[in-house]
Design goal:
single chain, 133 residues, alpha+beta, four-stranded antiparallel β-sheet, three-stranded antiparallel β-sheet, 34% helix
């Protein structure tokens, strides 16, 4: 039996895909989602995690709005595993890490904030997520 969150993600992806499909021109884009430390400046730092959902996106305003929604949806669906994924990437002890989700359309260099900062803090011991004290 599929988790209700997975149903929600699939539903949102179908809706987003239908929205994007209305503009058949200029489907040369790609949507990228990333997580940065909340205190980091995305113009100066590399993201902790980057995801490419592999959905064709037009390189225009509608595409940017769709990419924003895709990243917010992916973030919402993966909240339960974010800590584990971050710890496996960082591979060192980390206390009270907070992340913010950003998106980027196509090969543009500038990351834009989704304004979704995770209120939960991530703590790692090595590459394992642990409960923050």
């Amino acid at each position: 039996m599929m988790d209700s969150r997975l149903h929600y993600v699939i539903f949102m992806m179908v809706l987003i895909g239908e929205y994007v499909a209305e503009d058949k021109e200029n489907f040369d884009g790609s949507c990228f989602c990333a997580m940065f430390r909340t205190e980091d400046d995305p113009t100066k730092e590399d993201p902790l995690l980057v995801s490419d959902p592999q959905i064709p996106i037009p390189h225009n305003i509608a595409g940017a709005k769709s990419c924003l929604r895709i990243c917010i949806t992916l973030y919402a669906a993966s909240r339960d595993v974010i800590g584990k994924a971050l710890c496996q990437v960082l591979k060192h002890d980390t206390d009270n890490l907070r992340v913010t989700v950003y998106f980027r359309l196509c090969d543009e260099e500038k990351w834009a904030s989704t304004r979704n900062a995770d209120k939960n803090r991530v703590c790692c011991r090595g590459d394992e997520a642990v409960e923050c004290s």
